[in-house]
Design goal:
Chain lengths: ~300, ~375
């Protein structure tokens, strides 16, 4: 394992982490402020990717694709909130899980009905394609560097929004005491729609950005959704800072674990068994991390103490 | 007493003789969710052949297994018990086939596999009523290994998902590849980001990369590989380069060599007619899955013409004869009811705006699978 390879893998882990953050940020806000478990968050990620692929395919511009992804996901989010989610705030979590699971099925089959069963094409924009040479001689894809940059920018923007603006104050107040801020005259249902659309837009952005280097297909959101839940449980529900740290932890653990565990096992096992066993253990690693965090901090790293 | 048993026999015989000489086929395949493209192609190919035969005595019942083994098992039970089908077919995924096929054949029904070919059903677990019209799972990977020898590769980096078919894939490649391994990696099933593996490939000093990553996994891998600037040549089985997937991969797949028992440009009469009629009927080019569905239906039709399905022995013999015009050209079954067939090396090219495959040579001639010897029927 050369230092060069290690540095490249750390970059990969970071890139994975910031994209997870985009998903987890919306999820944690929605859960923190509205107390709602939204399983359909992965569908909004898929909506973003499909909107981007369709718009980029029609216009040839990746930037327009991103704009379409943001708009489509935010609109889908607002619509879902108004039509379905609004009726669920007073119900228990099981009802919410059931209803949002139904939304997953509706979104998946709806998308298949609109776009067909075959994956769509969405490519990295020409200006960002190909590798660049970083200091130290690492060859690294420019697009992934751009993803890290965009992710960090969005994280900083969200941090400012929560800490410094009036909306941010309302969101934080909403997390602490819903009834009280409603009593103080804040239009709580508008605030909820806004937060939901914001979370949806972030998920859509992640879907579009990641869709360019992965496969844009029905069901692409659900694996990411599971990881995003792990992130918010590690970070502490409702905390943007927690989501950020949690996402980076999960991204780095998953990437580096997948590399180092098989290498580690090779020291005392046959190579074939070592790769197989190492890969199996590596895929459990983030859940082990989650378990460990929960043992020492039952409400997550930055969760409010009960 | 004697009279009574005689009457009983007569009643049973009357029940067993169907009113119409009709064959009922149950198709269980994946029509919704992420893997739906494959099932839809198999179904469309199959139904095209039924339509072209003009026969109205073959009835096909189609159900969606949602890629879930438990759903597939329920559907199979329903089809056998209430629909009273004679023949089952359609399953795409090996884990679903393992859940369904043994119980179907044990109940005396025929199963014709248009895709999945797990090693367990080719060797010790083979059955006289189970026919695989596609391939045994290892076949295309073995062909990739053989092609890598021909291409002069000496040092391969190989990767596949960490599940039974992935392990079969790497075993198949290693069975025929004579060079060294620069690295052997199992990825997670459903993994979408391959940055870490690509970094390992770059650092490994390999002269070739073999991968088996079906469906969306392959799309992700190829796009990221092309963007990473690593230019080590790639070989793989046809599953990551079929007609449905290529359009989503785009330029990243151009020039990649993959192995397949079928290709759009295979030069034989049955195939030319199949490609033209499939495109006319559905408005898209057929994939290898569609060709497998088409061949499966034509095998069934040839057997229905030769024998009555209620006479299981005669029907089985008619299936074994495989007397139909395959899109692959010559087609015959080995002793374990799996195909003995030629596997080709294809290269991804662009025809106008459409990405497709072109045959560049033969990878393995008249290839049988490695498990036939274990099969005792």
């Amino acid at each position: 394992m050369t230092p060069l390879l290690l540095a490249e893998q750390i970059l990969n882990g970071l890139q994975f982490g910031v994209m997870l953050f985009l998903m987890a940020a919306g999820l944690t806000l929605i859960f923190g402020v509205m107390g709602l478990i939204n399983l359909a968050h992965g569908s909004l990620y898929m909506v973003g990717a499909f909107a981007a692929a369709a718009a980029a395919g029609a216009t040839g511009s990746f930037a327009l694709g991103l704009a379409a992804a943001l708009a489509a996901a935010a609109m889908a989010g607002a619509l879902v909130e108004i039509l379905v989610i609004r009726r669920l705030y007073a119900r228990d979590h099981l009802d919410q899980v059931l209803a949002t699971f139904a939304l997953i099925l509706i979104f998946s089959e709806g998308t298949r009905w609109l776009f067909g069963s075959f994956p769509l094409f969405l490519d990295v924009p020409g200006a960002l394609s190909g590798p660049v040479t970083l200091p130290g001689g690492i060859q690294y894809p420019l697009y992934r560097l751009a993803l890290i940059g965009i992710g960090l920018l969005v994280a900083a923007g969200l941090g400012l929004l929560i800490a410094r603006t009036r909306i941010g104050i309302q969101i934080r107040a909403g997390e602490n005491d819903r009834e009280m801020i409603a009593a103080l005259g804040v239009d709580i249902s508008r605030l909820y729609t806004l937060i939901f659309a914001l979370g949806a837009a972030l998920a859509g952005l992640a879907g579009a950005l990641v869709g360019a280097i992965q496969s844009v297909q029905v069901g692409m959101g659900e694996p990411v959704l599971i990881l995003a839940f792990v992130v918010i449980v590690i970070g502490g529900i409702g905390s943007i800072k927690g989501a950020f740290i949690g996402a980076l932890l999960v991204g780095l653990t998953d990437t580096l674990g997948g590399i180092f565990l098989p290498e580690l096992f090779k020291l005392f096992m046959e190579p074939a068994t070592a790769t197989s066993a190492g890969a199996s253990l590596a895929s459990m690693l983030i859940y082990i991390l989650m378990g460990a965090v929960l043992i020492f901090r039952p409400t997550g790293l930055f969760g409010s103490r009960a | 007493m004697k009279m009574k048993s005689l009457m009983l026999t007569a009643a049973v015989a009357a029940l067993a003789t169907p009113a119409l000489a009709e064959v009922k086929v149950g198709m269980i395949t994946t029509l919704s969710g992420g893997g739906a493209g494959l099932g839809i192609d198999v179904r469309d190919g199959f139904m095209l052949a039924i339509k072209q035969s003009g026969r109205d005595d073959i009835e096909v019942v189609i159900e969606d297994d949602q890629r879930k083994p438990d759903v597939a098992v329920q559907l199979a039970d329903k089809m056998i018990q209430s629909e009273k089908v004679d023949v089952l077919t359609g399953i795409i995924w090996s884990n679903l086939a393992m859940a369904v096929v043994p119980s179907v054949t044990a109940q005396g029904k025929f199963y014709l596999s248009p895709n999945a070919g797990p090693s367990a059903l080719a060797g010790k677990g083979c059955h006289e009523n189970y026919f695989n019209v596609a391939w045994q799972n290892d076949n295309l990977h073995e062909a990739a290994g053989s092609y890598a020898n021909t291409a002069g590769y000496k040092n391969s980096f190989i990767l596949a998902p960490n599940y039974p078919a992935g392990k079969d894939a790497l075993t198949g490649y290693k069975r025929f590849f004579e060079g060294n391994l620069a690295g052997e990696v199992y990825t997670q099933l459903g993994q979408t980001d391959y940055a870490a593996e690509i970094a390992q490939i770059r650092a490994s000093g390999a002269d070739s990369v073999f991968f088996f990553l079906p469906g969306g996994m392959g799309i992700s891998f190829l796009k990221q590989y092309a963007d990473s600037g690593v230019d080590i040549p790639v070989v793989g089985p046809a599953f990551s380069f079929d007609q449905g997937i290529l359009q989503a991969v785009g330029d990243a797949a151009l020039g990649v060599v993959n192995t397949s028992q079928w290709s759009k440009d295979l030069d034989n009469e049955a195939n030319t007619a199949f490609v033209a009629s499939f495109e006319a009927e559905y408005g898209r080019l057929p994939s290898l899955y569609a060709s497998q569905g088409f061949d499966t239906a034509n095998l069934l039709i040839s057997a229905v013409e030769a024998a009555d399905v209620s006479d299981a022995d005669a029907f089985r013999a008619a299936l074994e004869a495989a007397d139909f015009a395959s899109t692959r050209g010559a087609f015959k079954f080995g002793p374990n009811h799996h195909p003995i067939q030629t596997i080709y090396a294809r290269e991804v090219i662009k025809e106008g705006d459409v990405y497709t495959n072109k045959i560049i040579g033969v990878a393995l001639e008249d290839h049988a699978d490695a498990y036939a010897a274990d099969c005792k029927m």
